[in-house]
Amino acid sequence: MFFILQLATVALVLAVLYRPLGDYMAGVYTSHRHLRVERGIYRVIGVDQDSEQTWPIYFRSVLAFSAVGILIVYGLQRLQAFLPWSLGLPAVSEQLSFNTAISFVANTNWQSYSPEATMGYSVQLLGLAVQNFVSAAVGIAVAIALVRGLARRVSPTIGNFWVDLVRGSLRILLPIAAVSAVVLIIGGVIQNVNGFQEVTTLSGGTQSIPGGPVASQEAIKLLGTNGGGFFNANSSHPFENPTAWVNVVQVLLMLVIPFALPRTFGRIVGDNRQGYAILAAMATFFVLSLSVMTYFELSANGSAPGLAGGAMEGKEQRFGELGSTLFGTTSTLTSTGAVNSMHDSFTALGGGMAMLNMMLGELAPGGVGSGLYGMLVIAILAVFIAGLMVGRTPEYLGKKLGAREIKLASLYILTTPTLVLVGTALSFGIPVVRDSVIGTSIWNPGLHGFSEVLYAFTSAANNNGSAFAGLTANTPWFNTALGVAMLLGRLLPILFVLALAGSLAAQEKVPVTAGTLPTHKPLFVGLLCGTVLIVSALTYFPVLALGPLAEGLL
What we know:
Layout: H1 2-30, H2 36-45, H3 55-78, H4 94-105, H5 115-118, H6 121-151, H7 161-186, E1 196-200, E2 206-210, H8 214-223, H9 244-269, H10 272-298, H11 303-308, H12 320-333, H13 348-359, H14 370-390, E3 395-396, E4 399-400, H15 403-429, H16 431-441, H17 447-461, H18 476-505, H19 522-546, H20 548-553
Antiparallel strand pairs: 1-2, 3-4
Helix pairs in contact: 1-9, 3-4, 3-6, 3-18, 4-18, 6-7, 6-14, 6-18, 7-8, 9-10, 9-12, 10-12, 10-13, 10-19, 12-13, 13-17, 14-15, 14-19, 15-16, 15-17, 15-18, 17-18
């Protein structure tokens, strides 16, 4: 009954906020008015806020901003011992600094380390928390650029990256995160700069209790679908996620912007029905995924799960089975990667479902920005498939989809599976690497150990950041290979999306005819869902059969 109440609360709040938040975000990116603080930022960075960019310039801006971000976060980690509030922690090693810098700039927040024992407050606040804001703002900016490409006629430009970045950070993410942080503090999430405090336990021993500015980082970690925890236990730690109702708030923070962006899309293209169609496809996958994962966890076989009422290993009693599957489904269907339970301890098929959520492309509703542009790319491919079936030139929102557009959409879809499968294959295919992985990184040999490596590359390439905790990833191979997967998994899809936006923006709109496929009706929603399953899920079926499926059938 309590789980039904949680679901009803999440659904109700999202439904109430869908229209006002979506309309507000549409206004943010279509307004010609610049705030005073924004004009000051543009002067400092030397940007003409009233000029627009072609897609190559827009992409070069993303590259430049990402490169600077990586250098800053890397430098802060290497200089940590000299920074204030370092808590006496030494500099982070070169390879781990490289991996972490890419991870947070790419909105992945993969953590191959224990945060409270590795990062001081200066690195957390000046490096990681800042990237939580701006990496999310980059994702929204890219999505809006693609929406502009669909909405504009014969336009050589798709917007101004710097304006989109600043507006997303200051007008959307910052105010919502500030309010959310206060709510989390009220719920018991800590917010201090107390460092480590020695306390006496009931048995007379001593224990070091970490503090930190957790609530402020927790809010943007979830709102920006980042996922990196202040503590190693992430959102299962009572200082980050103390109660069941706070758990619901955290789920809402992960979902609120991704589920409202379809409304923003509908408003900008001038047809709210298009936004509802995208929303319907996202909601369908979310409900199906949550139902299947919950079923797998509740129906776990064995005497221990039976006595516990479910597979409770690695889960917090204050959340239970259902609160854990709700959070796990949300974090893997978005690109958040936060966890309130250990996915490595899920049943084989339950953990496989978390993996499949990422393999679908994190489209339901996906990460902040990335979910929308990923679903729009799939929509373009779905329209193309429908056009082939009836022998017509495919059109989406009045834009013809020719060879260039379909090639770009195909490259977008192929990028992530290539990174996942090649990374996993190299980990087991290169003898020296295989011996290192099997000998030092995998705690659980056999099928589950294979799943741990597959999960790691799936998480990295999809910019999720969650992990099967049985894998020791702080090694030279994984720090390097996963860092490359995160970087390419972030920048290559953005490249193809922006090129697609530029190609679409340059076109004139064609009139609707009797042969035009309606893209706002249930038939198209079904075609869209089917396309996701065919081009995404089936791509990974063979490798899933080697890991979680085989383990689950034993």
